[in-house]
Amino acid sequence: MTVSSYIPTAGAAASRVADSLYFPVGAKPQAMTVYARLVEHGTVLNNGKRLWQFGSAAPLFMCYVNGGYYNVYINNDKGQTRASAMTTAPTAGDIVELAAQLYVTGVMQLIQSIDGATASISSASNSITLPDDWSSIDLWFNGATSVGLVKLLNVCVERGVHNIDYMRRKAGVK
Amino acid sequence: MPRRQGKAAICWTSTDANSERVHWLQAPLRAIQPSHTQTVYSGESLDKSVIESVTVGEGAHEMVGTVRYDHNPQGLVDLIKEGSKNTTLTYIPNLADPDVSYSVKLISPRGLGEAGLDPQRATFGEHSVTLRLRQTDESAFRNEMFRGTDTLFWYRAGDSLEDATFTRAGTAVRVIKGYGTLTETTNDKARLEWVSTKGTSGFRDTPSLLLESSRTNHCEVSALLSSVASSGYWTATTESNSIALTSEQTDPYGTSSGWLLSDNSTVWSGNIRSTFITGLSTNVALSAYMKAGSTMSTAYPDDGTLLRLVDNDASANRCVAQVHWSSGVPSMSTNASYSRWDYAAPERCRDGWWRITTQTTGPVVSTANHYVQIVPHTISGARQSIYAFGVQVETSTG
Question: Which of B269, B266, B247 lies closest to B381, judged by CA?
Fold first, then answer.
């Protein structure tokens, strides 16, 4: 685990409650790429924690942590789920870039670059029937339920499948 | 000679030696407009009060779009020539995602006198032609074909959250720009934390949106580090030495709640320790803000400041940060005595303060009595003073 922001105390244990953030994006299931640039703050150390997610429940599309690595995952609420996982993980303090590609066939891949190094790409998932809609129009950051720890720098969601250089340009990073 | 520079393409089955012809597009079709054509016979009564219409079938949906920046005019002519023969064309808006494609017929132009020059790039010899396309099944094109932009969402830390829903029921602390000043943020306000993209010791020149899970600081008195100030929560332990505590020191908030911990002799080792902390479970992260004092040991690497969590029942360290100071800059490493725990790089804050962190590599004993100990220096023959503030003990479950 990693340390979180300072919680002052003065005579008793004290808690800071979770931050909750979502935007009404309204992007329907389609071919798209979700780019996020962040300072790793501990999410990757906590299995199940979510970096972002379309929809608060199934059907949903999200980037989350499983097995100690970032994964991209889809549940179409029709009895099908798919995932694609990285095989390397950042450590706390790293600048992490993640570009999740969702093809119109439901195939997914995740591209990851740590501290600007050459990007690596996960194995492509099998295809899946895309749902007609996500469970809500919202794009959640840090999870609707399984909340992690992140310092977000940039987020950009583009129609179509794009590589990480293209997404960096669109996000204004490069 | 075709030039491979496009991101989109229109393909068709070739009648020459190629298996397939591909006309690369510099950009997907621009200025796209939906259209529908249908055979309609209609008439109006003389007084215009009645309109009668007869339609034939359901008609066909079409799309009108413009090829822009085309610098392969002969290929463009070949495309229109082939489309004029009623050959099925395949339009692929994004070659990185070729599964999204449309089988279409070219409705117009049927034949091309000459390819017009592009209005913006004519001086570079690039051309522009408007095509009217109809899907082979006459169905409508997908709505996303007619979007104004490909960008579905864009956010950079520091942008407006007016359209967003943000909640946090309570205050929280963030670190602001410069080398880092702690600042309280009120409830339901998102925290913009400034970070350095050049490492944890760098100048904080980049904003980030800090989003965290809930956590509890189990150290019940995080800043009043003397027994007098904390009603006995912290006590100075002499062991074989004594320690002097001085309050009213500048802290990472920029106020005066820091403490100076000074050794009174060169004998190991005065320290302060907390009251027992109970109920810890799973992994533990221990942190404190520290700053080099005016009297620093030069006995590196044997000497160092210790911040540690001790299981009193087992008389065992659970996590330890051993900090070496050099010109006010801390570094953390392992030695024979303290090598079994994880630590993170010290994080710089204002006025020479650094956040020192260490964490267990496994769960602690939930029934055990733990305490936090801060030791300014760890060997005999040296004197060292350090500043301390903001002790935090947190677990992965609370």
Answer: B266
Sign of the Cα torsion B74, B77, B79, B82 reads negative
Segments of A17-170 assigned E as strands: 20-24, 32-40, 50-54, 60-66, 69-75, 81-85, 95-102, 108-114, 120-121, 138-141, 150-159
User: Is A24 close to B206, i.e. CB distance below 8 A?
Assistant: no
In A, minimum Cα distance to B206 occurs at A153
Q: Which of A6, A34, A104 to mutate to test binding with chain B, by most B CBs within 10 Å of its CB? A: A6
CB of B46 closer than 8 Å to CB of B67: no
Mind listing the pLDDT tens digit for each residue in B182-205? 999 999 999 999 999 888 788 899
Tell me whether 0.90 is exceeded by the ipTM.
yes
Of A14, A152, A171, the CB nearest to B211: A152
Digit-by-digit pLDDT tens for chain A (174 residues) are: 789 999 999 999 999 999 999 999 888 899 999 999 999 998 888 889 999 999 989 999 999 999 899 999 999 999 999 999 999 999 888 999 999 999 999 999 999 999 999 999 999 999 999 999 999 999 999 877 888 899 999 999 998 999 999 999 999 897
Q: How far is the C-alpha of B186 from the C-alpha of B181, rounded, in Å?
A: 16
Closest CA to A109 of A141, A70, A146: A70
Count other C-beta atoms under 10 Å from residue B336's C-beta: 5
User: Which pLDDT score, from 0 to 100, does residue B3 have?
Assistant: 39
Task: Calculate the CA B157 to chain-centre distance.
Answer: 9
What residue spans of B18-93 are helical by DSSP H?
Answer: 73-84
Question: Does B166 sit within 8 Å of A18, measured CB to CB?
Answer: no
Residues 127-166 of B with CB under 8 A from A: 144, 147, 150-157, 161, 163-166
Determine if residue B352 is left, alpha or beta; phi over 0 gives left, psi from -120 to 50 gives alpha, anything else beta: left
Q: Measured at the alpha carbon of residue A67, what is the angle toward residues A62 and A70, in degrees to the nearest 5?
A: 40
**Any idea which residue has 């340009």 for tokens?**
A169
Nearest CB partner across the interface for B211, out of A46, A141, A160: A141
Token duo for residue B73: 């005019």
Distances in whole angstroms, Cα of residue B239 to Cα of each of A99, B233, B265, B376: 55, 18, 12, 13
